[in-house]
Specification:
This protein is mainly α. Helix content is 53%, strand content 0%. It contains six helices and no strands. Helix 5 runs antiparallel to helix 6.
């Protein structure tokens, strides 16, 4: 092709005829494509080694954890045989408390009952007026109650005087 044939029309009349160029592209078929042979065996071997190493790490880690748990359990059992104060406190939180066996006659408890009705509501003179009718045991119960609650010196002194006479 000459330069004249490739130029675009600039508006001037040319004497040379124009030519039409046709191109045809043909794509090769898959069977016609020849790729170089690549040996993938080394890459497969490396991938297999990486996989086996990863599995091995997982197995060793699991075995290590199991071993560590067993060793920790054994150490804890040994510490429980001769517990210190901290170990005793922690074991007390999780161990069942053994029921204490009561004597064959059962458990007897003495529960003191105030011998004066509505004791907390009575005035000082009313309490002092009722003390002479009480036994020594009843006086001790009232004295202990008075010391723990209102702690009126007059009542305590009156009970002490009456107990010293008995």
């Amino acid at each position: 092709m000459s330069t004249q044939e490739c130029c675009m029309d600039t508006g001037e009349e040319r004497s040379a005829p124009r030519r039409v160029v046709e191109l045809e592209f043909r794509l090769p078929r898959l069977e016609e494509i020849k790729l170089p042979k690549v040996n993938l065996e080394p890459a497969r071997v490396v991938a297999e080694q990486v996989l086996l190493t990863s599995l091995g790490i997982g197995v060793l880690l699991a075995r290590g954890v199991v071993y560590a748990v067993r060793a920790a359990n054994q150490a804890g059992a040994e510490a429980a045989k001769n517990p210190g104060p901290v170990t005793s406190a922690l074991l007390g939180l999780v161990r069942r408390k053994e029921p204490t066996t009561a004597p064959s006659g059962g458990v007897r408890m003495k529960v003191p009952v105030l011998p004066i009705n509505n004791y907390d509501d009575l005035a000082l003179q009313d309490v002092l007026g009722r003390l002479p009718q009480l036994t020594a045991e009843q006086l001790r119960v009232v004295c202990e109650y008075e010391r723990d609650h209102q702690a009126r010196a007059e009542v305590i002194e009156a009970i002490d005087r009456q107990l010293s006479r008995a």
